[in-house]
Amino acid sequence: MKHLLLLSTLIFIGCVSNSEPMLVDELEDEAILSQTLIEQSQNFQLSYINNDFEGANAFMSTNFETTVFNSNGTDLIVQTQDNIENSGDGWDFDEFIMSNHSVTFDADQSTAVVVFNTDGSISFEGGEQNVPYATRASQTWVRTSMGWKIMHSHWSPRNGALGVPVEE
Predict the structure, then answer these.
(1) pLDDT (tens digit, 9 = 90+) per residue, 42-52?
(2) CA-CA-CA-CA torsion for 121, 124, 127, 129, nearest 10 degrees?
(3) What is the secondary structure of 9-78 as a DSSP string?
(4) What pLDDT sits at residue 161?
(5) Closest to 164 measured CA to CA, from 120, 114, 112
(6) CA torsion angle 7 12 15 19 (round to 10)
C-alpha cells in the first residue's frame, strides 16, 4: 500500500511539474502574439490615415471585407482602395498617437480583438487648426492562411472629445 501511495504521489508531482512550463510557454506565446498584433494594428492604422492603400491592404483579406464604423457616427464603411486613398479629404491629422493597447483572444487563438486609445489633433484646409481629437477603438483580427487580417474596426470619441469629421 505504501508503494502504491508513493507511486501515486510521484506521478502526481510529475504531472504538476510537467504542466507548469507549458502554461508559462503558452503565456509567453500569447504575449508575443499580442505584441505582433499591436504592431500590425498600428501599421494598418498609420497606413490608413496616410492614405497608403498598398500598406493598409497588406493587412486586409481577399476572402472577406474589412469594415469600419468611424468615430463620426456615420454608416458602416467597407474599406476599399478609393475609401482609403481619399479618407481625410479637406482635413488632416496634425498628430495621431495610439496608446493603451490591449489584446483579447478567443479560445483557439483564431480571432483577436485589439483595443486602444488615440489622441491628437486635426487641421482643416482653410479652417480651424489643431482641433483636439481623442477616440477609443476596437479592431477584430482573424487568423487566416495568409496571416492575421483585420476584419472590422469600431471607433468612438472619448468623453469631451471629437472624432473624425463627417466627409461629404
Answers:
(1) 999 999 999 99
(2) 20
(3) HHHHHHHHHHHHHHHHHHHHHHHHHHHHHHHHHHHHHHHHHTT-HHHHHTTS-SSS--EEE-TT-PPPEE
(4) 66
(5) 120
(6) -160
What is the SS3 string spanning 97-156?
Answer: EEEEEEEEECCCCCEEEEEEEEEEEEEECCCCCCEEEEEEEEEEEEEECCEEEEEEEEEE
Q: Report the predicted TM-score, pTM, of the whole model to 2 decimal places.
A: 0.79
Cell numbers standing for residue 32: 508575443
CA distance 154 to 123: 22
CA distance 135 to 158: 5
For all residues of the chain together, what is the average pLDDT?
Answer: 84
Residue 51 and residue 86: Cα distance in Å, rounded?
7
Q: Is 158 helix (H, G, I), strand (E, B) or coil?
A: coil
**Torsion angles phi and psi, residue 136, rounded to 5:** -125, 150
pLDDT above 70 for 24:
no
